[in-house]
Write a structure and sequence with these properties.
Blueprint (H helix, E strand, L loop, with lengths): L12 H10 L2 E8 L5 E3 L9 H4 L11 H6 L3 E2 H5 L2 H9 L3 E6 L15 H21 L7 E5 L4 H7 L5 E4 L10 H13 L3 H11 L4 E4 L5 H6 L9 H11 L4 E4 L3 H9 L3 E4 L26 H9 L5 H11 L8 H15 L5 H6 L12 E4 L16
Parallel strand pairs: 1-4, 1-10, 4-5, 5-6, 7-8, 8-9, 9-10
Antiparallel strand pairs: 1-2, 2-3
Helix pairs in contact: 1-5, 6-7
Length: about 400
């Protein structure tokens, strides 16, 4: 591939298209606009240079959809209706993780947010609208998941009759404060919730998967934890798999140095690093960026893992030619893959049931690599002089 890859600003159409092409899917953030539409935007404040905000409201939910699109942000509808995105999301079975952001306490929609009814109404409106847009564009239910840092997620899903896969992001964090404040608020919650308890909590709630912060696998966390710790090394693999039992676990952030271990442990990684030239990981492993939608069988994975820094590119290129996508796999290959995964990671699901539910997309339990906010988060302001 010639030329230097230039990473597009996070959550923009360019970034999302790159992410969904070069991995198993994308994660992105959604907020309601002043006119009740959905914009793809992480922060509560419109992320453009300060001088461009002068004389204008700073909160995302105080801007209309057209105003946000005019400065370069992307709507959910524009993203879904892009022909490249449709092909990847629908035909290739790529995954999308839709994170719904609550409004800031001081924003128009945040005033009175301590009132639970107002919180629930906001989140319900956002999720119902997103589901309507996905349904109208025929996005398969198995190719999406709704989640949020919101303790009322289960109630909203049930009362709003949301039919998409869903989960609650934990630990709970406030809508106010900077990143340091939010992390300080969250850390005590990590200490009292071992991984096994996290899994049980999600299972009991009826969630479809387990969103999981990388902190659960850090040595520092393990030392302070009240309960049995988990890790990414071989000595933790059996216990980790016995906790999951095949329930999909999405880990963020999956930094390149840990990516191989996360995927090898049977978990999905959300990555901020999707440079096509990143083919050799800092951990000393060749990278395979589509483990879910272009899955390697056991012998192919062994070949990839046996490569060295000198020959890995040629091996990757040959595998890209030889390995069929999930949708191209015949029944025999699909069955062999699922049997291998089920045994390796102790999936507590019937093989025939998995295969029946995976005709057009990889199994829900599959290990994937997902582009975080498209092709990775980027510095603030996100749109600097609208250079997208």
């Amino acid at each position: 591939m010639s030329g230097e890859w230039q990473q597009a600003p996070e959550n923009t159409l360019q970034s999302l298209k790159h992410g969904i092409i070069h991995s198993d899917g994308v994660e992105f953030d959604l907020r309601l606009t002043s006119d009740g539409k959905l914009i793809i935007h992480h922060d509560s404040v419109v992320s453009i240079p300060k001088h461009e905000l002068e004389g204008r409201p700073k909160w995302v939910d105080a801007w209309s959809l057209d105003e946000l699109k005019e400065v370069g942000f992307t709507s959910l509808e524009d993203f879904i209706q892009d022909s490249v995105v449709q092909k990847q999301w629908i035909e290739e079975g790529k995954m999308a993780c839709l994170e719904f952001k609550r409004p800031h306490l001081l924003s128009p929609n945040g005033r009175g947010i301590l009132n639970k009814k107002r919180q629930y109404k906001y989140m319900s409106n956002a999720m119902k609208l997103a589901e309507k847009i996905l349904d109208e564009n025929e996005i398969p239910k198995e190719n999406s998941v709704f989640y949020a840092f919101f303790r009322g997620m289960k109630q909203v899903v049930n009362e709003s009759k949301i039919e998409r896969n869903w989960a609650e992001l934990m630990p709970s964090i406030p809508t106010i404060g900077n990143r340091t404040f939010k992390r300080a608020y969250a850390y005590p919650q990590y200490m009292t919730m071992p991984f096994s308890k996290l899994v049980k909590r999600h299972r009991k709630s009826g969630a479809s998967m387990i969103p999981c912060a990388i902190e659960y696998f850090s040595p520092l966390y393990g030392k302070a934890l009240i309960g049995r710790k988990v890790g990414l090394g071989e000595k933790y693999s059996d216990y980790l798999s016995s906790c999951q039992k095949g329930m999909p676990t999405y880990v963020w952030p999956a930094k390149p140095v840990l990516e191989h271990k996360i995927l090898n442990a049977g978990m999905t990684g959300l990555t901020d690093y999707l440079d096509p030239k990143l083919t050799w990981l800092p951990s000393g492993n060749a990278r395979w960026s589509k483990p879910g939608t272009m899955p390697l069988d056991n012998s192919q994975l062994e070949l990839l893992n046996s490569s060295n820094q000198e020959d890995h590119v040629s091996i990757i290129n040959q595998l890209r030619v030889d390995v069929p996508s999930w949708k191209e796999c015949d029944n025999q290959r699909r069955t062999e893959l699922v049997k291998w995964w089920r045994k390796k990671w102790k999936w507590d699901y019937d093989i025939e049931e998995i295969l029946t539910n995976s005709k057009n997309s990889p199994p829900w339990q599959s290990v994937r690599l997902i582009g975080h906010r498209g092709s990775g988060k980027t510095p603030r302001p996100i749109l600097n002089n609208h250079s997208i």
